[in-house]
Write a structure and sequence with these properties.
The protein is mainly α. The protein has 20 helices and two strands. Strands 1-2 form a two-stranded antiparallel ribbon. The radius of gyration is 35 Å and the shape is elongated.
Length: about 425
């Protein structure tokens, strides 16, 4: 019985040795198969499948050569896809992109394992003049050179994967691009990218993070983009959106302040966010101060006057707000918001008169308030023509038409399509 067990044990050991030998032979065969310059796309695709078991087998998974060969296979596959695309063939963007990404990942693993410690005759480690163990590498230089050679391809691949809605792949590709571009070995080969280019890639990586709902990370990347000098309006806008979505209003307001000082004249939304923050903290004096500063720097911006009217109305009444709304309409009569706010003031005035004169005969009272309702209509109808989707405008118009007995316009409004 003991003899039988010994035979079985030897058999298992033999199988292990044969398995290890087979995996190493596979690595050697794959390396040889991609050495010919005439290798085609199908050969590389076959090599990808053939090398995979060696990446997990105990006998080969801890060898730098295994991962180095796998890296060469993936980069070669990417090259074949690229050539096929350049001659007009339709190529799977995701398969092409991930060939490049996998090649980089395999290269990183190869470098981690590619350390040959130098030893003395007695087996102890050799030390350099600083007392640190000495070592050599066999594949790392080739790996690093490959990474730098494909620097631009990582950026292009990010664009391709983003267009294919593979946001995870796009994020990873742009991350690799920035890591390689700023690496010491890239600097040694004089392939340093301008900061503005790195900023653009960080911005697009931030967009990918946004799609992945990694809002905090998106903010980090948008901030990096600006730090690199890429501070376009869209960088601020997407950063603010990410922060607000993440619920970080404090940081969103900080970024908005920077955006306002740079692009405030182009977009009223920055001021609205700042004002809303002031209102949320009941800091009305600060809100007015901000608006006064904005008006001082851009006195023809109708939106600023409309916002100031909103604050005045909140603090006191629509009567104090109306002069600001009037000024806003004077500056821009195509602003649906300003037309609505001014028309609403006249509407509220008419309602105030009606509510405080309930003892007057109805007909006499209507004659008194009709001119004010007409003033309201002139602005509300204009607002409705500009923006028919505003339900508040429709509701007030409906009430005025009803009170004035204007059945024709009321009927027309009721059957008008909503957007």
């Amino acid at each position: 019985m003991r003899g039988l067990n010994h035979i079985i044990l030897l058999s298992f050991m033999l199988l292990g040795v044969l398995g290890a030998t087979a995996q190493q032979r596979t690595v050697d065969e794959v390396k040889k198969s991609i050495s010919d310059l005439s290798v085609n796309l199908k050969t590389y695709q076959s090599a990808v499948d053939k090398i995979k078991p060696a990446l997990t087998h105990e006998a080969t998974k801890d060898k730098a050569e295994t991962w180095w060969v796998a890296m060469r296979v993936q980069y070669g596959l990417y090259d074949k896809y690229k050539v096929s695309k350049e001659v007009g063939n339709k190529v799977d963007a995701k398969a092409m992109g991930h060939a490049l990404l996998d090649g980089y990942g395999y290269g990183v693993q190869a470098m981690k394992l590619d350390t040959l410690w130098e030893k003395n005759k007695d087996g102890s480690l050799k030390l350099d003049k600083h007392g640190a163990p000495k070592y050599k590498t066999k594949f790392s230089k080739d790996v690093r050179n490959k990474m730098v050679d494909y620097l631009v391809d990582y950026s292009v691949t990010g664009v391709e994967l983003y267009a294919a809605k593979d946001y995870e792949g796009a994020y990873k590709s742009w991350d690799i691009y920035n890591d390689v571009a700023t690496s010491s070995f890239a600097r040694q080969r004089h392939k340093i990218e301008p900061d503005s280019v790195l900023g653009i890639s960080r911005f697009y990586q931030g967009l990918a993070a946004f799609h992945l709902k990694k809002y905090v990370d998106a903010h980090r990347l948008f901030t990096l983009a600006r730090n690199y000098g890429y501070d376009k309006k869209t960088v601020y806008d997407n950063d603010i959106a990410a922060l607000l979505t993440a619920g970080d209003t404090t940081t969103a307001v900080q970024v908005t302040r920077d955006a306002f000082h740079k692009y405030g004249k182009q977009d009223i939304q920055y001021m609205r966010i700042l004002i809303n923050d002031c209102i949320g903290h009941q800091n009305y004096d600060e809100a007015m101060r901000l608006l006064d500063y904005a008006i001082l720097t851009d006195s023809t911006n109708a939106d600023y006057f409309d916002l100031k009217g909103n604050i005045a109305e909140l603090l006191t009444s629509y009567l104090d707000a109306r002069p600001y709304y009037e000024r806003a309409v004077e500056l821009n009569d195509s602003s649906a918001r300003s037309q609505f706010d001014l028309g609403r003031c006249y509407y509220l005035e008419a309602l105030h008169v009606m509510r405080n004169n309930t003892l007057k005969p109805a007909k006499k009272l209507m004659r008194e308030v009709t001119p004010t309702f007409r003033k309201a209509l002139s602005h509300l109808e204009r607002a409705y023509a500009i923006d028919p989707s505003n339900q508040d405008t429709r509701n007030i118009l409906r009430d005025i038409y009803y009170k004035l007995g204007d059945a024709a316009n009321l009927e027309k409004l009721e059957h008008a399509p909503t957007r």
